[in-house]
Amino acid sequence: MKLIVAIIRPEQLSDVLEALFHADVRGVTISRVQGHGGEIEHVENYRGTSVKMALAEKVRLEIGVSNHFVQPTIDAILSAARTGEVGDGKILVLPIEKIYRIRTGEQDQDAVTPVHSDS
Amino acid sequence: MKLIVAIIRPEQLSDVLEALFHADVRGVTISRVQGHGGEIEHVENYRGTSVKMALAEKVRLEIGVSNHFVQPTIDAILSAARTGEVGDGKILVLPIEKIYRIRTGEQDQDAVTPVHSDS
Amino acid sequence: MKLIVAIIRPEQLSDVLEALFHADVRGVTISRVQGHGGEIEHVENYRGTSVKMALAEKVRLEIGVSNHFVQPTIDAILSAARTGEVGDGKILVLPIEKIYRIRTGEQDQDAVTPVHSDS
Amino acid sequence: MNNADIAWMLVATALVLLMTPALAFFYGGLVRSKNVLNTMMMSFVALGPVAVIWALLGYSLAFAPGNGAIGSLAFAGLRGVGMEAHGAIPHLLFMAFQGTFAIITPALISGAVVERMRFNAYLAFILLWVVGVYAPVAHWVWGGGFLATMGALDFAGGAVVHVNAATAALVAAVVVGPRKDYGRHAMLPHNVPFAMLGAGLLWFGWFGFNAGSALSAGPTAALAFTNTLLAPATTLAVWTMFDLFRGGAATAVGAATAIVVGLVVVTPAAGYISPLSAIAMGALGAIPSYFALIYRAKTKLDDSLDVVAAHGLGGATGAILTGVFADAAWSGGPSGLIDGNPGQVLTQAASVLIVLAYSGGATFVILKVLALMMPLRITGRVEGVGLDVTQHGEEAYTAGDGAILVKPKEASIAHGVADVVVSESGGGL
Amino acid sequence: MNNADIAWMLVATALVLLMTPALAFFYGGLVRSKNVLNTMMMSFVALGPVAVIWALLGYSLAFAPGNGAIGSLAFAGLRGVGMEAHGAIPHLLFMAFQGTFAIITPALISGAVVERMRFNAYLAFILLWVVGVYAPVAHWVWGGGFLATMGALDFAGGAVVHVNAATAALVAAVVVGPRKDYGRHAMLPHNVPFAMLGAGLLWFGWFGFNAGSALSAGPTAALAFTNTLLAPATTLAVWTMFDLFRGGAATAVGAATAIVVGLVVVTPAAGYISPLSAIAMGALGAIPSYFALIYRAKTKLDDSLDVVAAHGLGGATGAILTGVFADAAWSGGPSGLIDGNPGQVLTQAASVLIVLAYSGGATFVILKVLALMMPLRITGRVEGVGLDVTQHGEEAYTAGDGAILVKPKEASIAHGVADVVVSESGGGL
Amino acid sequence: MNNADIAWMLVATALVLLMTPALAFFYGGLVRSKNVLNTMMMSFVALGPVAVIWALLGYSLAFAPGNGAIGSLAFAGLRGVGMEAHGAIPHLLFMAFQGTFAIITPALISGAVVERMRFNAYLAFILLWVVGVYAPVAHWVWGGGFLATMGALDFAGGAVVHVNAATAALVAAVVVGPRKDYGRHAMLPHNVPFAMLGAGLLWFGWFGFNAGSALSAGPTAALAFTNTLLAPATTLAVWTMFDLFRGGAATAVGAATAIVVGLVVVTPAAGYISPLSAIAMGALGAIPSYFALIYRAKTKLDDSLDVVAAHGLGGATGAILTGVFADAAWSGGPSGLIDGNPGQVLTQAASVLIVLAYSGGATFVILKVLALMMPLRITGRVEGVGLDVTQHGEEAYTAGDGAILVKPKEASIAHGVADVVVSESGGGL
Ligand SMILES: Nc1ncnc2c1ncn2[C@@H]1O[C@H](COP(=O)(O)OP(=O)(O)O)[C@@H](O)[C@H]1O
Ligand SMILES: Nc1ncnc2c1ncn2[C@@H]1O[C@H](COP(=O)(O)OP(=O)(O)O)[C@@H](O)[C@H]1O
Ligand SMILES: Nc1ncnc2c1ncn2[C@@H]1O[C@H](COP(=O)(O)OP(=O)(O)O)[C@@H](O)[C@H]1O
Question: Do C30 and A35 make contact, defined as CB atoms within 8 angstroms?
């Protein structure tokens, strides 16, 4: 079980979600974050004050997957999130020791296997 | 030392916090996130445009605990966050290598042992 | 490769960012979170309703670094984020198994080595 | 009929119309973000269907010649409502001015049932209410009905508007029941500046409400206007003092509330009392509402935005104090207790009780009959998700990214899904 | 000249001025948060440069004595625009009132090109447009031009303002082209309450727009006012019904839109028709816009905030229905179809077509000429980042922490960077 | 006394009242989100206690017959302020109109001390200030005091309101001291649309401020009105040009600021100058404020929201240019430099200096005396947490979930805690 954390551009989110769904990844948690990397920093002006915006808007995806899903997930993100310009983001892979599905208490593998639901 | 990451429904947050406090967990960091799982997707309409809201509001809890606290913490979350309907969320357990308390520089075990404060 | 997660006070963010930049850490992702710890809880009043604000505003930093950067990064955060009062936050160090740069697909070490950009 | 009075009444009518969007912000800022559109729509919808039914039917029941209890159908469908003079202004302008009152009064009720009432049931309710409750009560006081004959004073609607709406709010809060987490979880305002915007615009609009009720731009309008400045200012000052003495902090939500309470209190008296009495009324009027607000939150009554404490108590206090402070030297007419006419206080109290009894009873009947036909409230699960998504199919604040467009080609399928979700919400959530 | 009419026209002018900030919120709430300041600035900037050029030049072209096609330079630089009477009010107040119309009309166009047009190009465009398109069209109808001679009725600007702006919007949307993700990704409103605030303030201001167009505070103003209350109320009621019957949910964005559509529809007719006809027009006027909005979203036309469906169709419907419902018994003048003058409908249709043709052609020419001198739109990458940062160098909502102050000593260097970034955006992003 | 003038002054008074909530948004949008309620309350509280003390005392000191320096107590407690004519309107309406000026003037000062002044100290300060500084200065110019005798022209308050408030702001910023992170960290506006809303509503309300200062609805009101449209429009146009030429980007914060500056500049001149001069003044008036804003941010003076640059420089420029442009042909009275009366410029400059000297000195004394009794500012730690939580015990924007309700049974304990926290803040944070 791995936790895949990806930092991407907000404008790529829709594409990445679609790519993930095509790769059969059904569970993902996202958050709005700000990032600093090699991007050009914008200078903004508020009345007489100039500020360098060191942080750019990003989206963070967090996906818990079983081991054989790791590579497809990463490939899906890599291809859908890439624009080729500085600031495309990073993917981190972390080890997970245990995973629970709150609704049922199921653990690990079972916890991330999508159940049938009528949507 | 483990990092427990839980994704729950926002409306369960108060209950989960209370359950954690009863289980003597005093330190927790939360963030507002959005999740996609097996939930029914809402279709929203904005003038002529229909959109499927693939993402539902969730809350993410992050709790660094020493090993003997792991199970009580998980149990507290599992029971307080469960509604039994699809979308209750997940709990992930990750290994932590080191933990510091910024205020004092204390490490590991000491860093997460609550200090006496007058609240 | 490690993932350093730090929870700090929002008002220390600028100082911490500066300290990180001085320590040559160029990549960081931050998010606005709320935390509960030993802080005094504020009681707020909305008309007749009193509520205890169990959660205080915090900022969460997430920094993927190669091993020899771990200690400098931690030292930078510890010194810039400390005010000495309860609520300064925590630093967690987690193991990373793999890291990718989305723009290029580079992995691990290469993925976090800053590229030259003209900012 | 003259252009000066027309000019003022044009403005006054526009000002009162603005109060309904203002109310939408006052209320909308105080609920949780997942319910803000629903809450605002509860006010906005009064600007549509309610206004139309009022123009076509309600106005006639309230103001066409009739008996002591109700008007007639003489003005139904706006027949006979034309350019001819009605006092100093054209009849149709009078109708428009009254229309803005009929719009905001039912909207006031919504504060008691936000965050759990089904939107369709609410809409049906206020349509019935404006015809069945507001129109007759307006007739009693302003249409030549029996309260007018009795000598009850209500310059701009302390009883007709505020006591009336607040009583309906009380009944509705009880019939619809509390929110599932009421008294268990904290439910906090999601945007206090919106509530302050609402309060600011309400005050601005209320000058039209009160000074417009003079129906001309003469000295009485100036008096009503000045009192509408001084009374809420005093309520705000007293409220701030209470806040500082009790807990040490003057709150913004409190300030917004104080302004509304002060405006409610002076409404029935505005054109009848001296400016100094307006200051007194603003100060006295703060007391019942201030403590009722604190007390109410400890009870089981989930009058979510405190319509009863603010409009009910404020309106009743104002109506009764009108009987105390009314002053012939200023009003050019009615006198109150201080001016040597103690009986007026009783008349005022009676008028409040009569409105209370009728509004309470009729509201109860309307809601119970509606409940036979459709569920009045959403289910608990939907309360968790919020009413914006489930009742209106939209969200107030979207991050923009991550929603998936339903393409034209998929539209039919998607529409299927939409139908499922929405019919679920249209059905019995 | 008398103080009563002056009093009303002072207020009416202030009300119309408020409509431009109101429009900024109506539009600003409907775009994504990264573009809200740019969208709002597209309206606000009309309050500055456009107002000045109008006062110095446009007003004269529209209202100074001239021929059937255009005024003259007699009033240029405000020469001869003074305290003397112009009808019931001083000439300069008439100029100010007209100025507020000239401000909002170009701002309306922006709804079709938000989220991708370069700000400088937009500014140049509306400056040319207000002089080259708005001024002559206003002259044709209100300045004694050939449409007035033809007998076309346009009480407050159905053709002059709404058809005119919407035609320009259509052309601009086509010339500038769709947003890069249009039809591919969902682009949702970031703050629906802002859109509702805009709609509420627009309604409030529109009373000045329509009832102010009577240019005095007489019964005609009262009629126009009442119709401006009843028509949008009816449109909102009908719209809500459509929503409920179609999908089961009345949306807040829909309600805000319905209010604007109803206001547009009644604009050309406000002082010419009976209140009952206003209700009819409000109801009928809902239909084309309602369905056009749904249809447009499925097309390739990225008229982002539906200026064409709301203002174009609403304005045209209103203009033509004015020819149906105009009633000499109420207007004291022109009659329409129902009142026995069927030819008026054709006159109305002709006036709409003429405005449409001229506005469309002239707008196209202006944009194409501008495109030779500067890029009209930003590049795709900048669309992703958003126009607030790239076109205005600021953000609407900042978390506050994490921005690094450019210290005075570093100012020169920072300025260097700023110049790079900004000149990039000033250049050809 | 006539209904036309009353009608206009009713509206004008309502418009000026609206400016204080508008200011709350203008200021509130420019601070960080943790301080928005505190900032807004600094304006809102003026609507309560300040209004009351003005009605009971300040008005009399300013406008009751007295000597050259100060009025008398003849009107204290509103004695003798009744329905009788005061010019064209009832005396009490004049009092109400003046009251709205007395409310907003102290609120203006708050912009210099936001984000660190203790709320209680601020409240005490403005109460003393409105009586001790505003009332006499108003008397000097408008109450028949010595500046009036000297022939100083101040149509609607360039010196009385803007120079006066800005001088107090300057002194207060110095005495209270800068925010702890001033000049070290960036402190950015949290909601620029709120600032734009404020600017839009301020402009709208300012028509009442300036054209209402004619005190009747005659041609002078129309002139003042038109100038209040043209001057800020020109300032906005010039400001936008400066922005474009300097950095390449027209900012929204800049646009909102420009509107306010233009309004301030034309305030003293509104009814005295030709519309063309208003355009000239709007253009000239932009210059000092524009560059002062840029310069100030590089100094140690933490006049946080630039009251001095916008209101002080704008007011002084306006006052002096009034002496240049005043034109008997338009004003029907006073002439300025261009009209052949060069001495007026000196009179104007003198009046600015006198107000500056008195306001500066008296403000300094008030603040120093208050500082002996209570700390004027919060401590550094509290600055970090924000003033909303610590001074008002509430938050502007809550996510809603995660707050824990203090149950009635625990109320006593919780109250204990509250007392600790709040008394801490009430004490010396
Ligand atoms: N070492 C890191 N740890 C955490 N997040 C990072 C790190 N490096 C970059 N990021 C995130 O990725 C985003 C893009 O990174 P950047 O280095 O600019 O792009 P690129 O990978 O294209 O060179 C940053 O804004 C930040 O959010
Ligand atoms: N594999 C996953 N990785 C990360 N987050 C997940 C994953 N699966 C689900 N989630 C989170 O949990 C939430 C609920 O998941 P879902 O699968 O719908 O519920 P259930 O566990 O009841 O079947 C999602 O909205 C998402 O935020
Ligand atoms: N065990 C924990 N897991 C995750 N976050 C924690 C933990 N303990 C504290 N935090 C975070 O750190 C913040 C400060 O912690 P606290 O214990 O109050 O401070 P201190 O370390 O100074 O005693 C909290 O608000 C919370 O966000």
Answer: yes
